[in-house]
Design brief:
There is one protein chain. By secondary structure, the chain is α/β, with parallel strands linked by helices. The structure holds ligand MIG. Ligand MIG binds near residues 170, 308, 405, 420 and 421.
């Protein structure tokens, strides 16, 4: 049963597709109050209750014991003590003494104190008084998720080839660099379907332009790669370079399509292209306009995109820099005591993604000027809807690969997400794993982390272990940052180990795609915490390092350096399968704890008794996969 409670005059986010007659907030069955223009509510938790949700967020599958924020943030350090990442996924689910789900449809900041101040209390503060809350009750946690997902609408399904292996880095600067990635994989026998183009494929980082020196005759190049079975996936950034004569800037300015400041002038801030204007993605007309610009690239044969920097990320604003410079100038010749020094330092350090800058931005919502801080979490979702809705209108569903960095529930209907700038850290293998079921609860099925880790240098064993988890994630992409060590599989010693792991992905693609499509069609989760399936099993309830996959499988990646295996908990008897290239090794294991050995070129998988999944023959491209010769394990 789903009940909607409304207070005031909420901004329409289009997160839900279900129209419900709202009840007054006075009927909301949790202790609540309005205070200083905020809405706060709380509930008590029994010691064994589990609190799930929040989609892409730091920390565990069980979110208890920390404070989180819904505030889309460009933060490249995903450490445990962070409160927010790039997304705002305002759904939580309590399971235990009581079972219910809550979705707060509200596009500004929310603080979720989930047992941080008091271990037994969840206290949620919504930074505004105009909001909708949906309460979902009845049935198991999985039933509640299904009911919630039905309310927010069916999840995006990408093209089949988007389940192929994807190789990225910032950046393959020119056609030769991209060619060498394809050649490197081909020579090592490592399957590959996509090569990514990061910001350097553009002319001066201008959206929908091509750097002609780096990619002369781009359209022919795209066609040539297609003939090799390779999709090139360009990045699109939210900021539009301020440059006279640049069509996108000129059009946006003439039509009044950019975000404004209070005085009506265009809001400007620095991102990769230098000073930029920001399309007002909250306006449907702007979305339509921007969405149609992707045609410039689809006309050249491009059929996949990733949208970046759409929290929006702001390196600096002109006002911010001026203010900092004034502050510095006033201090010249003064005695810099520690207080002043740190204040000055903080002023410069705080230039990026500053709250002052966000507060300077205004949107046009139905003819009204609305401050950005009231709708911050809709910006990236708006950009992604601009693209996703254009693709659906023009090409139909499931034709174009699309995923975004920032997101809000609702964008899951037309796009996937990736988990942003993680690190080449062992702990980030588990962070990826933990976000999968949480993202699934919120409708984001097509998702995954940068395999091998984005920031800093990766090691060969880390990349292999990361990939062995990525074998199961719908988005299987190796990506890394500018200036870091090369981490394409064929760059390391014994590239055949990478081939062995990635071939396993190709053998599983028919099964994984089928499981994915079923999850989308049934508003279900592809990945579930063990506790969803074994609610009475204490070890399963606490498990944060394994997941259920579909109806048949359990996954348990190795996540520690120098480990030749791991301890795994089997909540029932299962078949332990080690997959490596075309090799399949099986072992029956009984319910309980086991230490399993897994070599670097092996992918561990656990299959429930009396269940079977298909494995096809591997191929170098998804288009060459065929059911012929498939076996069941
Ligand atoms: O400020 O385009 O998350 O995947 O490689 C960094 C360069 C901008 C952030 C994305 C990352 C991408 C990078 N971008």
């Amino acid at each position: 049963m789903i009940t909607k409670f409304t207070h005031g005059d909420p901004i329409c986010t289009e997160a839900t597709v279900l129209r419900l007659e709202p009840r007054a907030m006075a009927d909301f069955p949790f202790e609540h109050r309005f205070e200083d223009g905020r809405f706060c509510f709380s509930f008590l938790m029994e010691p064994d209750d589990i609190l799930y949700g929040l989609g892409e967020a730091p920390r565990g599958i069980n979110k208890r014991g920390w404070i989180y924020q819904s505030y889309c943030s460009d933060d490249p350090f995903h450490t445990e003590t962070k409160e927010a990442l790039y997304a705002a996924h305002n759904f939580i689910l309590l399971s235990g003494s009581r079972t219910f789900g809550l979705f707060i449809d509200f596009p500004a900041r929310i603080r979720w104190d989930l047992g941080y101040t008091r271990q037994d209390t969840a206290e949620i503060t919504v930074e505004g008084a105009d909001l909708d809350i949906y309460l979902i009750e009845g049935g198991s946690p999985r039933d509640i998720v299904r009911e919630f997902r039905a309310a927010i609408g069916q999840s995006y399904i990408p093209p089949f080839w988007a389940f192929g292996f994807q190789q990225s880095r910032w950046s393959y600067h020119n056609a030769e660099a991209a060619d060498s990635v394809v050649a490197g994989h081909d020579a090592a026998g490592i399957p590959l379907d996509c090569v990514y183009l990061d910001i350097d494929y553009m002319d001066s980082y201008k959206d929908f332009t091509i750097n002609e020196t780096a990619f002369p005759d781009f359209a022919s190049y795209v066609r040539e790669k297609k003939e090799q079975g390779i999709h090139l996936i360009p990045i699109i950034d939210a900021g539009v370079k301020k440059e006279n004569g640049y069509f996108l800037y000129e059009e946006g300015k003439a039509k009044g399509f950019f975000c404004k400041k209070a005085d009506g002038s265009v809001f400007e801030a620095g991102v990769w292209p230098g000073v930029c204007a920001f399309p007002d993605f909250l306006d449907p007309e702007v979305r339509r306009w921007f969405g149609e610009k992707y045609k410039r690239l689809t006309d050249m044969g491009i059929d996949g995109f990733w949208n970046d920097m759409n929290e929006p990320a702001l390196f600096y604003s002109v006002e911010g820099v001026e203010n900092a410079l004034d502050k510095a100038a006033a201090l010249r010749g003064e005695n810099l005591d520690l207080g002043r020094f740190f204040n000055l330092k903080d002023t410069f350090m705080g230039l990026s993604n500053s709250q002052d800058d966000y507060a300077r931005i205004f949107h046009n919502i139905n003819g009204k000027q609305v401050n950005h801080q009231r709708v911050h979490n809709l910006y990236g979702a708006g950009m992604t809807r601009a693209a996703g809705e254009y693709f659906e209108r023009t090409f139909g569903r499931g034709k174009i690969l699309m995923f975004s960095r920032a997101s809000y529930i609702g964008a899951h209907r037309c796009s996937g997400i990736w988990f942003g700038d993680n690190h080449s850290w062992w702990s980030h293998i588990l962070l990826d794993l933990k976000m999968l079921p949480s993202a699934n609860m919120c409708g984001f099925l097509y998702c995954g982390a940068d395999l091998g880790g984005f920031n800093e240098n990766a090691t060969r064993d880390l990349v292999l272990r990361f990939l062995a988890l990525g074998v199961f994630t719908p988005l299987m992409r190796n990506h890394s940052a500018l200036g870091t060590r090369d981490q394409e599989g064929y760059r390391f010693e014994r590239p055949e180990d990478f081939r062995d792991v990635i071939q396993v992905r190709y053998r599983l693609i028919p099964y994984l795609y089928d499981t994915f499509v079923k999850a989308s069609e049934n508003n279900d989760m592809m990945f579930r915490p063990l506790s969803f399936d074994y609610p009475d099993d204490q070890i399963a309830r606490e498990c944060e390092t394994q997941l259920m996959l579909g109806e048949e499988c359990m996954i348990a990646p190795v996540y520690e350096q120098n480990a030749s295996g791991r301890t795994v908990y089997l909540p029932e008897d299962m078949t332990f399968v080690k997959l490596s290239g075309e090799r399949v090794e099986k072992q029956e294991l009984s319910k309980g704890l086991h230490y399993v050995k897994v070599a670097l070129n092996e992918v561990p998988l656990f299959i429930k008794k009396d269940r079977h999944i298909p494995l096809c023959k591997p191929a170098m491209r998804t288009k060459d996969l065929s059911p012929e010769g498939s076996i069941y394990i």
